[in-house]
Write a structure and sequence with these properties.
463 residues; FAD/NAD(P)-binding domain; Arc Repressor Mutant, subunit A; seven-stranded mixed β-sheet
Amino acid sequence: MRADLAVIGAGPAGLAATLAAAAQGVRVTLIDSAAEAGGQFYRRPAAALRARRPQALHHQWRTWERLRDGLGTHVESGPVRHLTDHHVWLVERRSTGFTVHALLGPEQRDPAEVRADAVLLATGGYEKVLPFPGWTLPGVIAAGGAQAMLKGGLAVSGRTAVVAGTGPLLLPVAAGLAAAGVEVAALVDSADPLAFVRRSRALVAEPGKVVEGAGYAGRLLRHRVRTLARHTVVEAHGTERLEAVTVAALDRDGRVRPGSGRRIPCDTLAVGHGMLPHTDLAETLGCRLDGLTVHVDDEQRTDVPGVWAAGETTGIGGSALSLAEGHIAGRSAAARLHGTEPDPRAWAAAAKARTRLRAFFAALDTVYAPPAHWTELVTDDTVVCRCEEVTGGTIRAAVAELGARDARTVKLLTRAGMGWCQGRVCGPAVAGLAGCAFTPSRRPFARPVPLGVLARAGEADGD
């Protein structure tokens, strides 16, 4: 297959970029691992479930309908080709452009290739969950996972839930579970309410987001969900599955206050500590990173010629920011593929929205930082790396007794991060216990690849 532009990821950023580029006459191949467009944000129930009001699970349904209809129009008229169930494991630079390598279907065994003159990365982000005693019990799930179950399967994992951690995702998750009939026993947030006051100027500059947050808070009040601010989960309890959690108050330094623990019975704990960008494909292409995010210029171009990036991969900031960045990236890529200098006036409104939203989420990042001393809650027998069953004690021993000073050395000494997820889940926790900054690990491939596929890579003509 050949395209002018290959867009990887069909979430808000990828969809906005695809529509913007196609509107300028560019042939676009939109590649996504899901069976339908929309990404995690616009995840919808399967048609077989016959949901009568899927819009009830979303607060931007009209935006989704506009994106969906626009994509359908461009696919039908020809400039856009939408490839579903394509799991991209590598983007290869060649003298004639780029080759996108993917695995097909749920089993991810059969290869596919797409060749393009340019690539736009809209690979999104993934959830961060920091470990604590009992976090591996059945019934403990990621907050985003709870939301995905509800949006995609109209399902919940239990009858009584605690939603805990930190980050703006907790509000819609708790509100969604409560609306679905789950008894939400508590929303446990480690954020300090005074931090919102200190960042009020940046936050009120984006009133739509403030109203959105207030709406979720209002729903929680209607469902009588109690909010425990500046609290954290200390331990999850149970034998064969989750039965209760212990939560405790935090002092101003981020440490648990002695004697403040309380036990809350529940069969579900939805927990999350923010989001991290997916940067695997960008790293293999040699794109520069700014900390954990892909570096881009005002046109959303990376420092690798022919590669653009937009959405959560350039910084966690929600769907509205992803839409703005995707639109800018699509317009820029279209102009440069046509051999012309882009005119920033073509995306002036999106650029203004991008500036405001980046400032808003930069302020939120400081408010929703995990507790400063969260590692003190990780006991020596707490499993940190679930894939390889490496405990906190083993990691601490690698540092104290074997001299490890960085996450890579800890990995070599303990196998933490060598499992199926390749450190995506445990990476922040391993770095925290090792006392070093978390940095992305550069990998040759973005996902596991069968050896047979590797042996045949490049044999297809891809056209």
